[in-house]
Amino acid sequence: MATEQPNSGGWWRSRSGFVLLGFLAIAAFFLWTEHRAHLLGILPYVLLLLCPLLHFLHGGHGGHGGHQRGDGGDPK
Fold this sequence. Notes:
- The protein is built from 1 helix and no strands.
- It is mainly α and about 80 residues long.
- It is flat and about 75 Å long.
């Protein structure tokens, strides 16, 4: 009874995986060289737009937990 050896390298270690990785690397190089000016030109605007997005997604200022009264009484 012959048992199959599990593929230890996965699909990325196969010949077609290396060819795909090479193709993607070449495509990324040409995309970067041709569109570098466009991408770097909008980078400041992307950073400015990410600030409020991250503020809302991460819950604002953290709930202002440091504004509690020390005497344990009603905050009125």
